[in-house]
Amino acid sequence: MTWVRLKGYFETSLAGLTQPTRSDWIFALRTVSAGLIALLAAYALKLDHPQWAMMTVFIVAQPVAGMVLAKGFYRLLGTLAGGVAAIGITTVFGTNPWVLVTVLAVWIGICTFVSSLLRNPEAYGAALAGYTAMIIGLPAFGQPHLVVNLAVARCAEIVLGIVCAGLTSRLILPKLASDAIISRLKRCILDLATYAGGAFSGGDPATLSGLHRKLVTDTQTLGEMRAYARLEAPSFAPRAHPVRRTIGQLLSALSAARALHSHAAPKNAALIPVRSELQALVGELATKSGALDDTAPWVARLDAISAKARQMPDASTDQGDDRVGTITRLTIAADFAEALKQVLRGLDALRAPATRPVRGSRQPALVVHRDYPGASRNAVRAALATLLVAAFWLTTKWSEAAGTVILVAVVSSLFAARPDPVQVAWGFFKGTLLALPFAFLVGQIAMPALPGFGWFVLFVVPILVPTALGMANPRYVGVATAFAINFLAFLSPHQAMTYDPGPFFAGSASVLVGILLAIGVFILVLPADPWLAANRIVRAMREDLARLCLHERVPRRSAFESLAYDRINQLMPLVQNAGRKGDAVLGGGVAAVTVGLEILRLRDASQGHAIPSETALSIANFLRGLARELLFRAPGDPQTSTVTVARQYAAGIAQRNGAGEMLQIAASLRIIAAAMEDFPDFFARDKG
What we know:
The chain crosses the membrane at residues 27-45, 51-69, 76-93, 99-118, 123-141, 147-168, 379-395, 401-417, 424-446, 452-469, 476-492, 504-526. The chain has 25 helices and no strands. By secondary structure, it is mainly α. The two termini are 42 Å apart.
């Protein structure tokens, strides 16, 4: 890529950052200021590699204070673990270079495996522990007595950067995760009201699909922010439970609204008033200014609508040809009203938290899905790539190849668990390549001629402020972060800088080659298929539903909702850019929430004394059949009789007994059947 193309790419990228917000400017200026403070402190402490302190600020920089603290905390843990590992490995195996690089490669594979099983920011810390051992261990090659000094220096530089980033993010016009959660939850509620308004009025399917996707994405972000907020302030701990429960209620309300849209109700006297009241309520909620300042009026209206929907309509009332269908839709409408009411109460709980958590209402621990096949693939790939490049380094004796080994280890481990690691790594390469000419101009031309910290500030601030604005923009965050980190790495700011282009270009070339080799590894060695990982999560969701059908212990509704949210949270990044196919999987995941809740309703009803024993036996037989369907039917295979049986049972129950409890059972059976008909492939076992 020529200089003109590089310049054009940079200008195009900046053009996409039109009209940055006040929050973006605060983030950019705060980040650059923290980086300069860290560098100045590193100069004062006479650290060997002061650029690492400034680089750390940009590595952990995030718009929200809690995210900075979380990433900084796990970066510190990862650095300490990697430093200890480097000391141990180098001390024991440092006399034999081939054994040393082999053990380091195995260590990177182990850390990549652990990282692939964890979530951010824990995953980041595990990956960092792997390649930090390589960063510390390779420079000590042949000089094992230096490894302790290198580890201590690296940890000191990292700690300095983390402290500067954490303090500035928390003290200088902070954007707090707790405030961001409340703000995003409000937007979710308004988006849900907009979606529901369109669903109840037969809105445009394409528009509703886009809103559906956005809402699922926002629930994922809410879940991530919850963890950051707890690190940001221990006082947020009592509010962590309402956030998780509210996310489950959001998904329940979204699923109910989707079901009402997919199965438009016939016009009858029993259903029209409830639907009209819901449509009017969500319409007002979505359009009224300051609607969420006081939730009490909305909660009262939702209570009234829910109560009306749960009243069994009189048999003499005109309900069309399908009384059970009417009851089913009324049940879904009541579930939507109840879920939306709980979401509003969750918002109130966040704005006015309890002084201490209520021990008796704690949620059970989530059963987190662990993708062991994917983690094993990532571990083998990272270890093998590192070992092969290290073998090349030892064979050729090319001194700059050590940098290549390190970059291969970093990229192949850090990006291994991403849904599209090639795309992410390519963005990292573009940012690195773009940083090269700017680092050369500043570090090799300007700074040797005009030394001093003041001139350094004058040269780098006009470069790093626009870069930090790019880091605040989700569209450019990957390239901009890579640019910032590698600009400082190439620049390698010291108090006395000299013109020496030979080592500069040799080191830069080793970095670029290392990134390209890592990309090649992602493409050629055990290439990742996001759909395989997505299918494993979908299979876990079907197994969750099967356990609900068969397990003797019936879990609480809130526990299942939390579990279902957790699965969707893992599924979202894998399929969100897959078009209609991805939308179908996400839609099926949200529908699975509805199916699970109806299974729980059937289990609760079958254990009661208000229904005949033959009905309880029929429910048990149906749930066993449903479990077989979920576990054994493959996509494309004809559906078993489960859906037909559900409809037949529902019709038979309604004919034999018109009591409210029996009609609710019939409605649950119909809801399950409808969800499975809407997403037949989601509720079928994958053939892989």
